[in-house]
Task: structure prediction
Amino acid sequence: MTSDLREQITEWLTGADTCFLLGAGCSLCAGKPLIGALTDNVLDGADAKLTEHFQSLKAEGARSATVEDLINYLVRYSEILCSIRNSDDHNISVTEIDTWLATIKKKIVATVADDWTPSNYHQRFLRRIRGQRKRGPRDIFSLNYDTLLEASLDELRMYYVDGFRGANRAWFDPDVFDDARNEASYRLFKLHGSINWTRDEAGHVRRGRNANEDAADEPVIVYPSEQKYLQTQYGIYETLLSEFRKRLRASSLNNCLVVLGYSFNDEHINEAICDAVTSRGSNLTVIAFIGPEQDREAQNTRLESFSERCDSRFNAFIDSGATGYFIGNALDTDAASAVLNAELWKFEKLVDFIAGEDA
Result:
């Protein structure tokens, strides 16, 4: 890879006007699961009847069914049972569905929970992209429930804000994002909630150091299902998504969104990005490093369609090697091939690229 190309990629990732969107792929190096492994964990030891229902599911396209499909199915089935006069002909009840959903949600929480352990890769990443303090905080938008970013920032002793005031029973107050604009190193927006968020009896969203397994409160994370969009239309999620939209519309000349570890399968996130790119006077450029899906051809087609909607200001490096594919206009063919060969869709590879090999 030429020095000019390395400089261009580094500028995308460390530029003063760059913000980040991080997905599950960025937590894989720290032992957090992708959707396939999460599905296996949820079904491990599950009720035989629930497993039977899952095995009967037909997923979209060529991919296998996941816990997302299972939650969607159960939610829809429950709505059907509640809308008919007699459900005796069905071998499933609303009570069973509610029990299954509660169990599934608890397993999701248990799978991604941690003990506030920092990640070496996340620390190196955060140190490298921080840049000049005088320019204000770096904005990171995360779709992950884990606390890898928070634990890593704590370990680095970097001041950050996440929308809460207080400590063990901190309360959500979005004004903290603006109040700390000139002091914080980072502003962290967890668009799908966090493993250590709960909603108390009064309806207030609280944040503690860790999820309290004995608490009656249900963690306020957006579980992977089609209900994501509905759940983001009110309260804390509406506020966080509004902050995301506002940041993407920043008037800075070199406004850039770098996307890591996200598959572009959440429509409300995709719509926010597309709307920002195509809004009047927008300077936003999107640079995405995306891992491969099982059906690569369908993945390429889907992302090409998204790029067209974004007036071709969406640049995606998908997979690597012989199956690597570039969408966009930011680089020519040879330069794009060099980037693909660097396997930067892997978070640890990207960290090594911008921060140097860990000694």
Q: What stands out?
A: The chain is about 40% helix and 15% strand. The CA atoms of residues 161 and 179 lie 10 Å apart. Residues 3-32+115-355 form one domain. The mean pLDDT is 88.
